[in-house]
Amino acid sequence: MEETRGVVKHVLLAKFKDDISNEQIEELIKGFANLVNHIEPMKAFHWGEDVSFENKSQGFTHIFESSFESTEGVAEYVSHPKHVEFAKLYFAYLEKVLVIDYKPTIVRC
Amino acid sequence: MEETRGVVKHVLLAKFKDDISNEQIEELIKGFANLVNHIEPMKAFHWGEDVSFENKSQGFTHIFESSFESTEGVAEYVSHPKHVEFAKLYFAYLEKVLVIDYKPTIVRC
Known about the structure:
Two copies of one chain form a homodimer.
Chain A (H helix, E strand, L loop, with lengths): L1 E2 L4 E9 L5 H13 L9 E6 L12 E7 L2 H9 L1 H12 L1 E9 L2 E4 L1
Antiparallel strand pairs in A: 1-6, 2-4, 2-5, 3-4
């Protein structure tokens, strides 16, 4: 098992407020995805909706995974004006949010 | 933005109980990682400790990401005897757990 050099995954779990429409959620996701075009240290962006049948998601319905080369890159992203502007809007639509960053140890690719 | 065909990510967030030693945590992680050698539909396994400075991890300290080719593969994994045996041990050491599965839409690789 070896730690991947130069990769930090920034994982955000979200539950949108109940009165938000699917169209609004789509727009918010597009806005999130668009950050990758503006914030240089943000190298990759994946997202998806929960499809688990185990009922252990604690109400979280969406997951967003951004990749960086370092924790400094994450910090640069968090304080970037484009992110600050987006986050202000986005967080107003969220009922719950959870953020965890990690340097993946890859046991099998 | 297109959905990746044939990939389902199974993400587990964990907080171990306070009285668990680092050595015990290491052993549990090795046990988790070893499942990839026994459960055919489990195609990949990555894990890491939280390194976020944002203080939004809600107490979760570790993240484990397994990859499958389908939600049926996840179901096969969950009910596999090797997983059932491991999970029984593992969950006894956890204070908190959260599981979310998703089919990643890749905006940028």
